[in-house]
Amino acid sequence: VADLWLVYSKPVPANGRELRTLFLQCSCITAVIGGLFYNWMFDSLEYSWHLSVAMAVSFSLLLLLTLFLVHPARCVFSMIMPTLGTKQGRKLLLSTCTMIVVVNILPNIISNIKTILQVIQCICKNSSESLLNSTALLGTAAWEFGDAIQETSNSINIHRPMNGHFQFSLLKNSSLIYQQMHLAGEKIERDFLAVEALVKDSVRVGNRLVAGFSMLYLCFESTWYLKNYLTDLRFDNFYITKKLERLAVDRKAAHLLVGPSKNLLRPTGMKLSREEVMLCLVQAMLLTVALMLMLVVVAMDHFAFSVADTAERKASQFSMVPVTLNIKYSVSAGAKIGILNSLLEFLGLPSKELPLQDFKGSYHHYLIFSSAHCGISRPTPPSPSVLLAVGLLFCILYATVFLQTYAHRLRRKIAGSFFESWEEKRALYLYKKLSRKHKEG
């Protein structure tokens, strides 16, 4: 591995064997990166298949030529890998996590809300239909009650009244109500589909912009680091490297490194400075806020499924509600109609008692709230694989928070291995700086 890295980090291959080895290394790297780039564009960013293939192939060929021919480009590309463990890498992972949530969890929430609306629509449709049918019960009761009154009226021979039946108007055609309910349901469904499409498109565009910006910034940050590394001897130069230790031993000044300043660190050590610890804590807090937002969406998914599942099960268990209409009309046997008797006496006719009869009727009907013809879709449970993917991504994100310091140190080590002569100059500069401080102290 050390020999392969030596060939890869050399400015110019020494012979044909090293040239072939370098080309094979660059080919393997570009093949892997091209596959990951295609999967990222097609699955995460949701570009079309043809565009993803074309972009992946073009990117792989360009990367192969760049890595094989340009030595600083190999250094920048190699530093991009540990940079993925820093803030920019977390942005890419958060972008991927957001896209997973939008593509998988949000449509599931909307689907379960649709199921709830279908249950409500079914109950409204069946209950209104059953309620309209119950008006026929009122019509039957009114007609029979009218018959009873008509029989009483027929017992009076002096006057023949008009038809004594109640004229009860019924809504025979309920298609207008069904049509309005159907149109309302279609409008709600269209609104939900429009909201779902808007959210998906907005997050997709935003995710693509963030992903593209993050990739460009990864390249820019690595290039910026290499530029400062090669132009400023003081830049990121506070590590006790092997070259610095060897230089101190050769000049018999190992005591300069025995009790090093608190600002000096070993690049391979686990010690973190106070500034690095504070930075990790701040980044962890910001990541926790993003995690809370994701957990709210996941909780909404579980809540929507729970409500939809309960509504769907309870709707099928709704029993018919019996409705009974009781009509009781009671009249005393000795009752008289004063006006009619006065009229009979005026005409010289004997008054007579009206044989009013009691009326009692009982009418039954059933209100139906649910039906098997409603066509309610089954609620969709949350996907365990999606939750597992989101959980794993956040575990990686939290790991990068505490590993970003070591990623920065690895980036410096990579730059030093590509430009060894410049690393010796940096070690000499740091040695002189320590010697000067020791003499002044």
UniProtKB/TrEMBL annotation:
The chain crosses the membrane at residues 21-41, 47-71, 92-110, 277-300, 386-407. It comes from the Eukaryota. Coiled coil: none annotated. Keywords: Membrane, Transmembrane, Transmembrane helix. InterPro entries: CSR-E3_Ligase_Protein, DC_STAMP-like. GO terms for cellular component: membrane. Its main location: membrane. It is found in: Membrane. It is a multi-pass membrane protein. Residues 235-431 form the Dendritic cell-specific transmembrane protein-like domain. PANTHER family: DENDRITIC CELL-SPECIFIC TRANSMEMBRANE PROTEIN, OSTEOCLAST STIMULATORY TRANSMEMBRANE PROTEIN. This is OCSTP protein. It comes from Cepphus grylle (Black guillemot). The lineage of its organism: Eukaryota, Metazoa, Chordata, Craniata, Vertebrata.
